[in-house]
Specification:
The structure holds 2 protein chains of 2 kinds. By secondary structure, chain A is an alpha+beta fold. Chain A is built from 6 helices and 35 strands. The N terminus of chain A is likely disordered. Chain B is mainly α. Chain B starts with a helix and ends with a helix. Classes of the chains: A alpha+beta, B mainly alpha. The interface between A and B is large, with 64 and 67 residues.
Chain lengths: 617, 304
């Protein structure tokens, strides 16, 4: 009896010792092994309490969020924003830091965006953090948007390696906007600590240019995210839809990453008090729609028939794609679709349009994850649900919007199709900063209509949901990544150069640790690729209306189906002439105007018709 | 009730616990997938495969077909199914079946280790699988040494402590954070806000450790065992209760039911301890006596 008790007590002691040891390790922030990241909130001096700051300027409103380390008990929580005017710092706003997440969001209206301004965030008497609010680059022909995704910090795949190459390259090209498409934070419980680390890594470039960080699944603390308007998720993997973390955790994440965005179009909150942040940013004559492609999306578990080893994975190639295109399944949701429809028609201060979201509108990979092999389709992508996917693309192409996204852990270029191949927008999915989860675009059959010399995986394909997609590039990782754990895993970043004069869009996809200004530096195969803005809605089956010649530069042109009254598209023409594309055999009302299509140009325009001169002055 | 009935009941509890555990995992492997990806997609694993002369394509497939990894992952499910049957058929003298069950315990250790790795080395996730990993061992001990043998009882106590200390650490949120779905399940089932759910979990975490300690206090151990059985049952069924809905295909049963079933050892082992301690304050009897009772129980079962 004594022996039994002694033994059980020993076991318990060992257990408690183990836990206590782990506690100590946790306190010291020690790594538990090769794969686990070191993540701790460093203690900083009072003068360094401001970690970094993010901002945007839109519609003459500056919104800036300062991110602070924890303010010690007893110290003031007031944080000030000052602008340098005539060599002196002038306070333009002050706010109280929000304790949960230690953010200090500022808002300054009547901001003059025609000139740059130096700013500094100040706390107490010691702490300041300086940066530059850029002028709106409306005078530049080329606006560069640097794109990033997937910022894992785990050492097992290079997450612990320096980001200095990214900083250096952004500085070298002097990117105008930074776009982090999602997964800035991979820690599912300590967003604040990880966000501070993100700030330490990227603050040097973020402080001087508008930055957009879209919180995705890992930021919200879960492996995948089908938000279902704020429902609570309990299923492992979260495919039942909703948020795993409590609402106040998600609110903290969104406050940190998005409170500096332009005001949301419709701020009505979803369940659990979670806000919304979809909006648009007009910068450098480019109108960026910032979408939330996760927040409203339906979770697949229990909604679609099981077709694979996970509720969101389809491995059975014989399945009927129509069987999962279920009634009532949501992708962007009515609110966002309404926003896109209105945004696509509004060309004030815009020569080009781009849409930014977490991920792309198709199944953009065939082989997923580790040794799990080939998947027919992944419902985490925006290829599902198909009908809402098609509706989203139908709305976006009406504004000739170019799509910039991430999340896939695999860089790709796709030309999306809805009713026919290549009848919708182009998308560029950027590679991960560090690649936690590998994917490959590797169709079993060669694509149709490939360009000469293109690899078999290019060309027209049906994705796993039977969506029409045309691939132009894929930065597939090595099959057995080893050695250089960044580039063998196809890590990297993207630049998109929007030329608002030529209306060209150049996509660049770079591996890590290259100098992008070195002529010898090579991008991933398939890049760079340059398209025209007008390629974002130019179906192969269309014809051309007669050429329109205007008396003003760059008018806004709109085509309306004469029979259904439905707007086919609205776009700002380039120069004084424009030859609208349109479906053959249909009649269109053509409208035009300087900044809005307020003048009827033709009521019976048809493909193959005659040109005409248009007076708009 | 004959003198052998209490032991028969104890054995039945262990059999049912083991059966449910293996059957639940069989469902996971055959209907969904086992969590072994993180173990297999490693340089070390491939190096081992290469050492056996297996090429990369043979190991993971060419992309157009499945490799050894995918084929064998699916086959593991059949092993679990067989093991679940063995928990019902194994007898005192079935040495081969016992050996298989011990192997099944090894499989569950590997599975738990894979989950531990996937969770980036969170110790509680491994520890909380203690009952699942150990129930085949406890069943074998119960059959070979007796349901009241000190080794059987000690192993069962260790298993319960593992589950409740793992759960307790998670529920307290220190030093590892509380899994977010704990909050979600608590909020949904009890219809409370996240803050209240957090408070409930913290209290539950403290009680988990009270149970671990109480199992060593003669006056408290039966109460602790019954609490552990009830709480183990409630936490096991929390997933289907929180997640299932008439709006879902099959009401979501295929997504959630197995999550409760494979956790059966979490409440079956405390139940075993409760009934074990119900009749006598002394949980350990002589090996000879235990063995005799076991033989009687075996004979009773084989004739019933």
């Amino acid at each position: 009896m004594k022996f039994v008790r002694l033994l059980t007590l020993c076991c318990t002691a060992l257990l408690i010792t183990g836990i206590a040891d782990a506690q100590q390790n946790g306190k010291k922030g020690k790594a538990k092994g090769k794969g686990r990241a070191i993540l701790a909130i460093p203690e900083v001096e009072k003068k360094d309490i401001i970690c970094f700051a993010l901002y945007t300027v839109s519609d003459n409103t500056l919104k800036l969020t300062a991110q602070l380390y924890p303010i010690p008990e007893g110290d003031t929580k007031t944080v000030r924003l000052e602008i340098e005017k005539d060599g002196k710092w002038v306070e333009v706003a002050k706010t109280e830091a929000i304790e949960r997440g230690w953010t200090a969001p500022f808002r300054v209206e009547d901001w003059d965006d025609t000139k740059a301004a130096k700013y500094r965030v100040a706390h107490g008497t010691e702490a300041t953090y300086e940066g530059t609010i850029r002028k709106n680059p409306t005078d530049k022909d080329e606006v560069i948007v640097a794109g990033f995704t997937g910022n894992s910090i785990h050492p097992s795949h290079g997450g612990d390696l320096s980001r200095q190459d990214l900083i250096d390259n952004v500085k070298k090209v002097d990117a105008d906007v930074l776009f982090f498409s999602g997964d800035q934070v991979y820690d599912h419980h300590r967003h604040y600590a990880a966000w501070l680390r993100f700030g330490r890594d990227f603050g040097e470039i973020i402080k001087d240019r508008p930055t957009l960080c879209l919180p995705d699944d890992h930021d919200a603390g879960q492996p995948n995210l089908w938000g279902e308007s704020g429902k609570v998720s309990t299923l492992s993997g979260a495919a039942d839809g909703g948020y795993i973390q409590p609402g106040d955790y998600v609110q903290e994440v969104e406050r940190a990453q998005t409170s500096h965005f332009p005001d949301p179009v419709d701020p009505t909150k979803i369940a659990q008090g979670i806000g919304v942040w979809y909006t648009n940013l007009n910068w450098g004559n480019i109108d960026f729609a910032i979408l939330e492609d996760r927040k409203f999306k339906t979770g697949p578990a229990g909604r679609v028939p099981k077709q694979g080893p996970r509720p969101d994975h389809i491995s059975n190639p014989e399945y009927d794609p129509a069987s999962i295109d279920v009634d009532g399944a949501i992708l962007l949701g009515e609110r966002q679709l309404k926003f896109i429809d209105e945004w696509a028609q509004d060309w004030s201060h815009a020569n080009m349009k781009a849409v930014l979201s977490a991920t792309i509108f198709c199944g953009g990979a065939h082989i997923h994850g580790s040794a799990n092999g080939r998947l027919h389709a992944d419902m985490d992508s925006n290829g599902w649900p198909q009908t809402p996917r098609n509706n989203a693309l139908r709305s976006l192409r009406k504004g000739f919007a170019f799509h910039y996204a991430g999340d896939q852990h695999l860089a790709t270029i796709f030309h999306q199709g809805v009713d026919e191949y290549r009848d919708a927008i182009w998308s560029f999915c950027v590679p991960s900063i560090t690649n936690l989860y590998l994917r490959w675009w590797e169709p079993l059959e060669a694509g149709a209509n490939r360009e000469a010399g293109a690899p078999d995986y290019n060309g027209d394909h049906l994705d796993g949901f039977n969506n029409k997609v045309t691939n132009y590039a894929a930065a597939n990782p090595e099959k057995n990544p080893a050695g250089n754990i960044l580039n063998t895993r196809a890590a990297g970043f993207g630049f998109v150069r929007f030329n608002t004069k030529s209306r060209e869009i150049r996509m660049e996809c770079w591996p890590r640790n290259v100098d992008v200004t070195d002529p010898a530096a090579e991008q991933y195969p398939g890049w760079p690729r340059t398209i025209s803005q007008f390629d974002n809605y130019n179906p192969p089956s269309w014809g051309k209306l007669g050429e329109l010649t205007f008396d003003i530069e760059n008018p806004v042109v709109q085509l309306i189906d004469a029979e259904s009254d439905e707007i086919l598209y609205t776009v700002r023409a380039s120069g004084k002439t424009f030859t609208p594309g349109a479906p053959k055999g249909k009649t269109f009302v053509v409208k035009a105007g300087k900044d809005a299509p307020d003048t009827v140009v033709s009521k019976e325009a048809k493909a193959g018709g005659d040109g005409q001169a248009v007076v708009l002055k | 009730m004959t003198s052998s009935n209490p032991d028969k009941l104890l054995l039945l509890i262990l059999r049912l616990g083991g059966f449910c555990c293996f059957a639940g995992w069989a469902w996971v492997h055959l209907y969904w997938e086992g969590p072994y990806g993180i173990l297999l997609w490693r340089d070390e694993t491939f190096a081992l495969a290469e050492w056996f002369g297996i090429s990369w394509d043979e190991f993971v497939g060419t992309g157009a077909n499945d490799g050894l990894v995918q084929k064998w992952l699916a086959r593991i499910g059949w092993l679990y199914l067989i093991l679940s049957i063995l928990t019902l058929t194994v007898r005192k003298k079935s040495k081969v079946q016992m050996a298989f069950l011990m192997g099944g315990s090894g499989l569950l250790v590997v599975l738990s280790y894979a989950k531990y790795l996937a969770a980036l080395g969170q110790l509680p996730i491994f520890i909380e699988h203690g009952s699942q990993m150990l129930i085949p061992v406890i069943l074998v001990l119960a059959l070979s040494l007796g349901v009241r043998h000190r080794a059987t009882v000690i192993t069962a106590i260790v298993a319960v402590i593992m589950v409740f200390s793992g759960h307790g650490v998670y529920a307290l949120g220190y030093p590892w954070p509380t899994p977010a779905n704990f909050f979600g399940m608590t909020s949904l089932i009890l219809n409370v806000e996240a803050e209240t759910a957090c408070a409930i979990l913290r209290v539950a975490g403290i009680l988990d450790f009270v149970v671990c300690i109480g199992l060593f206090v003669p006056l408290a151990r039966r109460s602790c065992a019954v609490y552990a059985a009830v709480w183990g049952f409630l936490t096991a069924i929390a997933r289907p209760v929180a997640g299932m809905s008439t709006d879902l295909i099959h009401w979501g049963a295929d997504q959630y039911i197995h999550e409760a079933i494979l956790r059966a050892p979490h409440f079956m082992l405390p139940l075993y301890l409760f009934f074990l301690w119900k009749k006598s304050e002394d949980p350990v009897v002589s090996e000879a006596s235990a063995s005799l009772r076991e033989e009687e129980a075996d004979a009773y079962m084989s004739h019933s």
